[in-house]
Amino acid sequence: MSRMSETPITIDHQSNHSRNDAASLNWIQFNFDYFKTNDGILKVIQMVLSIICMALAAPAFLNATHFFLFAVVITFIGVVLWSFAYFLGIKDVLSLPINWTLSEFVNYVIATMLLFLGSIIQLSSWLGVDLVYQARNIAAAFVGILDTIAFGLSARMLYLQYKFDRST
Fold it and tell me: More exposed terminus of the chain, fewer Cβ within 10 Å: N or C?
């Protein structure tokens, strides 16, 4: 039987890090003014329209509605994450080599295409059937088209910001 060597471990109780929870979160700055800007207002509109889409289209009775809800939920999660990033000032605090404007632009372009495709599929599939929930699913598709327009406006504004940042 072989004997394993023991390694001494030293514990330093005098750490530079504060154990106080309030002090460890002092980097968070709530940016309420962001939601007064055009970008912030568009994010709030996108979240509200996405919630309306989810409420109108659920539960999914057709396969098209499954895809539509997938598109709406994925884009909703994305806009919520970006809203928190701006609200908490995370992108200003993190010193990562990320082009935040380009990252958000790509996210919004993908979201716009996904919502457009989901809304068109939802609308075309529910126009041809006669089920009990037809009216609310058609309404969900129209609200999805409005949400697509809101996401497209955000993508356009981010593209203009990206062009401006590159030119300076």
Answer: N
